[in-house]
Amino acid sequence: MDSPRSAAWAGIKAQIPGTLGIIPFGLITGAASNAAGIDPWFAFVLSIIVYAGAAQLAAISLIAQHAPATVLLLTVTVINLRMLMYSAAVAPLFQHLNWRWKAAIGYTLTDNAFALMLAKFDRNSPHANSHWFYAGAAGYLWVVWQTTVGLGIFGGSKLPDSWNMEFAIPLFFLSLLLPALRTRCHWTTAVVAGLASIFTVALPFKLGLLVAAFVGMATGLLCEYRVKNNE
Amino acid sequence: MSEQAWLWVLMLVMGAITFAIRTAFLILPASTKLPETLERALKYVVAAVLPALVIPDVLFRAPPLGWAFDPVRLIAAAVAVGVALWTKNVLATLASGMAVLWLLKWLAWF
Q: Could you report the predicted ipTM of this complex, rounded to two decimals?
C-alpha cells in the first residue's frame, strides 16, 4: 500500500474472492438478454453504459415486454437508489481527487466495490493510496463483469446450476461484514437490518434492501444515543 | 424515430440516471458538511447494508423459484461464519461455505 502500484495490486487481490460469485451472475445476465430476444450488441453496450447487474436484468426484461419508457426509467432509478447511500458513505475517502477520478469512481461504484472499500478503510481517516486500491478492485470487477456478460451474450456460456457458484456472493459479503462489527451498536444494527430484510424480501425493485438498511442505520443511531446517555 | 433508435436513447438516459445517483455525493465540494445525523448514521452503513444483502440469499433460494426456505444454504452460511470468526480469512470463509453447500446438496441427492 506504499505506492500506487502496490495499492492497486492489493485491491485486485482483495477483490478476487468477490468476483467468484460475480462470474455466474454475469453469465446469467448475458444469457438472459439472449433468451429475451434482445439485440446482442444492444445488450453488451447497455452493460457498459449502465454497469449495474440488477438494473440491467430488469431493463432487459422490461424492454423485451415493450414496457413504456417511464416504467423502464423509474425501475432503473429505484433499483439503483441504494447507490446514493454508497456514494455518501465512500465520499470522504475520495474528496481530494479531481473530477476525472470522481467520475471513474462513481461509474464503477457497485455493492461489491462499496463493501470492500468500507471494510478496508476508515471513512474518516483516508489512506493516501486508497483511490489506487479502489482502482484495482473496482477496475478488476468491471473487467470480470463485462467479460462474463459478453461470454453470456455472444457465447451462450453458463456455469452448471449444480455448482451454486452464486452462493459465493453472500459468503464474500459475510467475510467483509464480521470484522466491521466492532461495537455492540454495530451488532445491534446488523441483527435488526438482517431481520428487517426477511420481512421485506418480497418487495420489488430491491426496495427491501433499502428499507432494511434504513431501519438498521436508525437502530444504530438510537443505540449510540442510549449508550451515550447511560455514561 | 424508429423503435430501435429510441431504445438506444433510453439506454443513454438509463446510464445517465445511474451515473448521477452514484456520483451524487462524490462531486460535492470538500467543504460541504453533511447533516450531523446523516454523518453519524453512515458509520453503520456497512453493518446495515451487508446483512440486508446477505440474509435473503442465505435463507431463501433464488427469487425466480419463489423465495422458498432453503436450510442447506443456512447451514453452509453458519459454518462459513464460524470459519470467518476463527480464521479471519476471506478465502477460507468462501471455501468452507461452498464445501458445506456442495456436500449437503450431494448428500440430499441420495
A: 0.91
